[in-house]
Amino acid sequence: MPIRSRIEETIAAAIAGARLDPAPPALGQALDYAVNPGGARIRPTLCLSVAVACGDDRPEVANAAAAAIELMHCASLVHDDMPCFDDADIRRGKPSLHRAYGEALALLAGDSLIVMAFETLTELPASDAGRALALMRILARSTGMPGGICAGQGWESESKVNLSAYHQAKTGSLFTAATAMGAAAAGSDPEAWTELGARIGEAFQVADDLRDALYDEDVLGKPAGQDAVHARPNAVAELGVRGAIRRLEDILSGAIASIPSCPGEAALCEIIRAQAERLMPVIPARMAV
Description:
By secondary structure, the protein is mainly α. It has a single domain (3-275), classed as Farnesyl Diphosphate Synthase. The chain has 14 helices and two strands, in the order H-H-H-H-E-E-H-H-H-H-H-H-H-H-H-H. It has helices at 3-18, 25-35, 42-53, 59-81, 97-101, 103-122, 129-143, 149-155, 163-185, 194-214, 217-220, 226-229, 235-257, 265-279, and strands spanning 90-91, 94-95. It has a two-stranded antiparallel ribbon with strand order 1-2.
């Protein structure tokens, strides 16, 4: 089965299970709204790609790992958009969840998705308990404190920000989880894959900083210029546009070089190269001089 189909079917099953009677209907609808349509599904695709490269001997474990990563990512987007943080009106080209369903249901939906991410892993067969535990440990560390996505959000409330730590926590942590969980799901050493995830996460954050500075809302599918509006730390403010692009190129080169030796190494290199090409922003004509 293609990777995208594996991701969508596993996520759909998790959402369907959450909406069974006697679940409150509006919250169930909000959960579906939060994860569909799903955008590029970059993190779960990376997770499954690593699992495949490592042999993918237990596909159902890899599917659960990928779904858990995406459910956690969607939860972070719901919370990130809320008025207490970015107060964003648009996400993935449609009204953000709190605009469509209200703040109360948005908060509950985000919380429910976090729980659902872990629940997806607990439902693996007892024969996979060892791998499931390893996956839950990786996901927990990438979600909470001191270096997970909660810490990343927390850095935005500090008066003095460590940009590297902020990027690693806010964006890099789930990418690191994606590569580590993909390896763990296939019975390989997750630690060997953390550098690849960290580099891809940093590259994604720098690329996101560039897109936020260069593109408008129509292109992004979400509000533009938010780093400047909220005075958030970002690579463009620190390095300038061209400096940020050079930094992005360096990170992506290092990412490809960091791929551990594995049965599917060559195929994975091509996948990472393709992702790198998609991450590289196009400089608008007005800034090309």
